[in-house]
Structure formats: structure tokens, C-alpha cells
From TrEMBL:
Record region (Disordered): 162-196
Name of the featured protein: Tetratricopeptide repeat protein
Gene3D superfamilies linked to this entry: Tetratricopeptide repeat domain
SMART domains: TPR
TPR repeat feature ranges: 44-77
């Protein structure tokens, strides 16, 4: 039996999509979110979660478009702003990443996101010690989202591997730290993270 999605309001669509995401039902979540984002164009949460899902399946241009829409609709949706910058960084667009992260300028240092931002900006500048310090500080503060800390730990591991002393032959083969294979996750369902 096909369900008439038009009977669902924005809150219902968002919650149902979160459930689908947590069950790894990406096609169903995207279908629901596309419908919701079309009918409720001003709901930033729907655009944000749609963007995270597009990134999850590798449609990065669509992900960026949805995340940009979410950030424009609701600049206080800080996780969308952070993930937009992270997506730009993974696409090899560091200038666009830094520009996107300007949306985090008003956050206090008691939030993890400014520390993660600083760490990634240090990474862009090849300032590995400062990168490491900032990411670790953010991970200490972030107790609400273990998945985000896991992503930052992956970056730290790459920084450590790239900055470790290497034998001369291995030094040439060692890639620089990169976040290209880092998958974005849908953190949108966590109230604590989306507003700080």
C-alpha cells in the first residue's frame, strides 16, 4: 500500500527520516526528505538532513546545495554550517570550507565546533601541531556526539601518520593528511549538536 505523504507535516517527515537514516534506509530517507523539502521549503532541518544523506551516498554537489540552503534558512543550525565546510574540504575546496565556517564565528569556545574548525583550518595551513591541539580540545568538549569525535579522530590519525618521522624512501610515498574519504554523517537529529 502506498502512503500519501501529503498528510505528513514537517516535524513528522523529519522524525520519520531520522528513523530511516538510523536504519540505513537511505533511499527511503532521501525520497521522504525530497518530498518534505519541496513542500516545506523554509524548514532548514529537512534541507540539512537531505544534504547529509546526499553526502552519505556520494552525491556531493547535491549535498553542498542542500547544506547551503539549510545554513541560509537557519544560520543557528551550526552543525549544518560545520558540515558544509567539512564537505567543501573533502572536495579539495579549502577556501570555500573556510568561507562556510565563518557561519560559526559567534560560537563560544565552550562549544566543540569552533575547536574543530580551528583544527581543520590549521590542517589546511599544514600546521599539524596546532591542528592536533585544536581537534583534541574539541573532542574533549564534545561528549554528545561520539560519531563526530570518531570522524575527528580519523583526521588526527592521518595527521599523526603524515607527521611521523619516515625513512627517506617512505617519506616520498607518504600522502599528506586528507579528509577526502571521510563520510559525513547525519548529526541533524541531535538537538545538542545542531544548535551549538
Amino acid at each position: 500500500m502506498l502512503m500519501d505523504l501529503s498528510i505528513l507535516d514537517a516535524d513528522e517527515i523529519f522524525q520519520l527520516a531520522l528513523n530511516l537514516v538510523s536504519d540505513n534506509q537511505h533511499a527511503e530517507a532521501i525520497a521522504l526528505l525530497k518530498d518534505g523539502a519541496t513542500r516545506y521549503r523554509s524548514d532548514a532541518r529537512l534541507h540539512y538532513l537531505l544534504g547529509a544523506e546526499y553526502a552519505q551516498i556520494g552525491l556531493y554537489d547535491r549535498a553542498a546545495e542542500s547544506l547551503e540552503t539549510a545554513a541560509a534558512l537557519d544560520p543557528s543550525l551550526h552543525m549544518a554550517v560545520f558540515q558544509l565546510g567539512l564537505l567543501r574540504l573533502t572536495q579539495g575546496q579549502p577556501d570555500k570550507a573556510i568561507s562556510a565556517w565563518k557561519g560559526l564565528d559567534g560560537l563560544e569556545d565552550t562549544s566543540a565546533l569552533p575547536h574543530f574548525r580551528k583544527g581543520l583550518e590549521h590542517l589546511i595551513a599544514d600546521e599539524f601541531d596546532a591542528c592536533r591541539d585544536s581537534l583534541k580540545k574539541g573532542m574533549e568538549i564534545n561528549t554528545a556526539l561520539p560519531a563526530l569525535n570518531h570522524d575527528m579522530q580519523q583526521i588526527l590519525d592521518r595527521v599523526d601518520a603524515a607527521s611521523a618521522p619516515q625513512p627517506a624512501a617512505a617519506e616520498e610515498a607518504q600522502p599528506a593528511p586528507a579528509t577526502g574519504s571521510l563520510f559525513m554523517r547525519g548529526y541533524a537529529g541531535h538537538d545538542d549538536s545542531t544548535r551549538h
